[in-house]
Specification:
The longest helix is centred in the first third of the chain and has 36 residues. The protein is elongated. With 341 residues, it is an alpha+beta fold. It starts with a helix and ends in a 5-residue tail after the last helix. Helix 1 packs parallel to helix 4 and helix 2 runs antiparallel to helix 4. Bound molecules: zinc ion (ZN). The site of zinc ion has 7 residues, from loops.
Length: 341
């Protein structure tokens, strides 16, 4: 009898209850009134009285083990069923899929890239951690130029390998890299992030996006520059925009100009955004300074070129009527979801 109990103990442990049918088979074999264990209890009468307490205790443990296994499986199936029913609750509101989409900055940048690509410009990129010499010196910034001040530039290290390392303050060093790398004619745009050490507010942020362009060839003139920018502005801001070039100064271009377009929000009549002037400033531009060409090993007697650069984020803010530039960088999903694909 003792051996029978031990083998049943093992059988109960090994019995796999994967389905309700398994559970029923288990129940019928072990725990029902005419099951194996009940039969053993009936046989207990014929056991030697001296052994009875010990065998009886073993038998009791066997019965408890079988019942425990049975109860555990019953509860598990009940819980599974409850869970399954909950999943099939047809009154629950549906779950909406959310499809990722382009960030508004990337949308506007993409449109700008497309327009310039159509005009034959290639795309060049460069590192955001830049050498001081590429960011300033080679672009004809004098050593005492105020832009080099700690107030405006994030310096990372000072004087390593003869040049400071900084977070680029504009994408112009990419133009230097392209001119050092290639022989003219050159026609590229350089889109990317730039960094300025500025007080953060709704109107300015420590990082923003720029897109610059560079064209170097024989006999490139200011008229070519105007035609290119006019074509860009008509595609970007609407076919009836007008342009205005105002004389300006940049170390790396001569002559230099700032470009305004008629305010595309009010059509030039004057509104809050254009401060009643009817004009919006969109970029700086000019003819590449001969010193910059010389710095890059390009002969200014043979080659000439123009360059332009614009902030991307301001256009994004205007086009989507967003009133705080910080929203473009905070990755707040509630804001991003307003720009579906
Ligand atoms: Zn306006």
């Amino acid at each position: 009898m003792e051996n029978t109990i031990r083998s049943l103990q093992q059988e109960i442990i090994d019995f796999e209850i994967g389905t309700k049918a398994d559970l029923e088979a288990f129940r019928l074999r072990f725990t029902v009134r005419k099951g194996l264990i009940a039969n053993l209890f009936a046989e207990l009468k014929s056991v030697d009285p001296a052994e009875k307490p010990r065998i009886g205790q073993m038998l009791n443990q066997l019965k408890l083990a079988a019942e425990a296994k049975c109860n555990e499986a019953t509860e598990k199936f009940a819980a599974d069923e409850a869970f399954g029913n909950a999943r099939k609750d047809l009154t629950l509101p549906g779950r909406r899929d959310f499809t990722g989409s382009e960030h508004p900055v990337q949308k506007v940048l993409g449109e700008m890239k497309r327009i310039f690509s159509d005009m034959g410009f290639g795309i060049a990129t460069g590192p955001e951690l830049e050498l001081d010499s590429f960011n300033f010196d080679m672009l004809n910034f004098p050593p005492d130029h105020p832009a080099r001040d700690m107030q405006d530039t994030f310096f990372i290290t000072r004087k390593q390998n003869g040049s400071d390392v900084l977070l680029r303050t504009h994408t112009s060093p990419v133009q230097i890299r392209v001119m050092l790398d290639r022989k003219p004619p050159i026609r590229v745009i350089c889109p990317g992030k730039v960094y300025r050490n500025e007080a953060i507010s709704a109107r300015s942020y420590c990082v923003f996006h720029q897109l610059e362009g560079l064209y170097i060839d024989r006999k490139v003139s200011f008229a070519d520059l105007k035609a290119t920018i006019y074509s860009f502005a008509r595609q970007m801001f609407g076919t009836d925009v007008k342009l205005r070039f105002r004389p300006s100064f940049f170390p790396f271009t001569e002559p230099s100009a700032e470009v305004d377009v008629t305010c595309y929000l009010c059509g030039g009549k004057g509104c809050r955004v254009c401060k009643k002037s009817g004009w919006l400033e969109i970029m700086g531009c000019g003819m590449v300074h001969p010193n910059v060409l010389v710095n890059c090993g390009i002969d200014p007697e043979t080659w000439s070129g123009y360059a332009f650069g614009m902030g991307v984020d301001r256009t994004v803010l205007l086009q989507y009527k967003i009133d705080d530039i910080r929203l473009l960088f905070e990755n707040d999903i509630r804001m991003l979801r307003q720009f579906p694909a």
